[in-house]
Design goal:
With 191 residues, this protein is mostly beta strands. It has strands spanning 2-4, 8-9, 15-20, 34-41, 46-51, 60-69, 76-78, 84-89, 95-103, 107-109, 117-118, 138-141, 149-152, 155-156, 160-164, 171-173, 177-178, 184-187.
Length: 191
Amino acid sequence: TLTITTNLTLNGSVAVPFELNTATNAGSGVNDLVNVGGLLDPQFATISVTPLSLLTSGGTYRLFNYGSESGNPFNAVTTDSRCTFTLADSGGSPGHFDLTVTGSNSNLVWSGGGGATWDLTSNLNWDTDTQQFYNSDAVTFDDSSINNTVSIGATIRPVSVNVTNNSATYLFQGTGKITGITGLTKAGTGT
């Protein structure tokens, strides 16, 4: 939680980053929150959201609390995940801006039939070759894949990576990398 006891004026070219988790708690070390004691003036700034875990469609997150607000709105909400968002201003003094998840990230299972490359939003290699990977999706590699050599072709940011194979042997290679706060969970007897 960031607390500003006076006014906060943003610039239209600014992107204000927020990291969100599954729980919708405001601030408290769970989600990002900005408290502005005085006037909040967004001046058409952009809000950039990074999901750190799977978000629930319909979940509402408090982003800003303010003493008063200028009436200049935020320009847009952006993300590189498959989530979509709606931003609402409560109005009034004091007031707040809340963000509601209207489309959530996915739990994907690797199928590998669309070319064996794990990339961003290009290849249909997930869920029996019907889905693309977006940042902040959760991914699983199990025994159901037809292709167990995975070429990481971009810098990707899943919220979790689970390898739950018994009979399949997976090889991860390529010029890309897995980044972010995720870990790798291995279960099963396969390698």
